[in-house]
Amino acid sequence: MANYKVSGVITDDARIHILKDGDYQGYKDITSGSYEANFELDDATGVAAVAEKSDGEIVGFGDITAVSGSISDITTVGGIKTMQPFVANIASGQTTFNCTLSTSVDMDNCFIIHSGNSSYSGYEYHSFDATTLVLTSSTNVQAIRHKGVNGGTQPICYVRGFAIEFGSGIINSIQRGIITLGSGGPVETVDTAISSVDTTKAFITHSIRMNDYVARLAPPILFLSSATNLRLERYTQFNQALKVVYEVVELV
User: Fold this and answer.
1) d(Cα 142, Cα 122) in Å, to the nearest integer?
2) Distance CA 159, CA 3 (A)
3) Which of 34, 62, 76, 78 is the most exposed place for a label (fewest CB within 10 A)?
């Protein structure tokens, strides 16, 4: 990495945006007058600096020069840093499979997308297909399913998902947890307290598994009923005990 400086003079308070080949690198808020902002990049090819007022008006363009010994003072903003697909092949008779991520992720900036699971279990045993996915460390996603009919042997189960990691400045917070539901119905509502989030910038990922055996699976729905409450609702005529793994992801 090399050190660079953007400098110039503006007549209004503004935010200096740093771009390279059109990709956003970061910013620094400055006051009117002469300014400098230091940053690090592989090289200065295609780098541009634009000063923008809060109302969107462009008020200047900075000059880029190479410097030595500077410390970056821009706020970096990253896009997707890594997107790692993974497959869990849970063998017959097993309940757990650990998927090793090839690249270590920052757990504060990474969430899991469950993209589906299937098993050869016969018409009646749909609960075998229900598998939760948990990011247990920076290099591991754990897939877990129910133990089987009355403790019996389950068939082979295949699960796919994605570990999606963003660079800094995109995700504000990720709150993870597990909701355990006992058998109940036909209508059930469960509220879980969370740290306050901006509901206009937050979304939920979740996965489920059976906590006991029933042939039919009725998945619940999850949503934010307020800035500090995660609500789960399910409507079913069957009594099903479930475990629900969730992530509440709030963007900046």
Assistant:
1) 25
2) 45
3) 34
Q: How far is CA 190 from CA 117, 180, 205, in A?
A: 25, 10, 17
Residue showing tokens 């200047």:
60
Q: Which CATH number among 2.60.40.3110, 1.10.8.420, 3.60.10.10, 1.20.1250.20 corresponds to the domain 2-76?
A: 2.60.40.3110
Q: What is the DSSP letter of 21?
A: T
For the record, the structure tokens of 234 come out as 């399910």
Residue 53 · residue 137 · CB < 8 Å: no
The answer to whether residues 208 and 219 touch, using CB atoms and an 8 Å cutoff, is yes
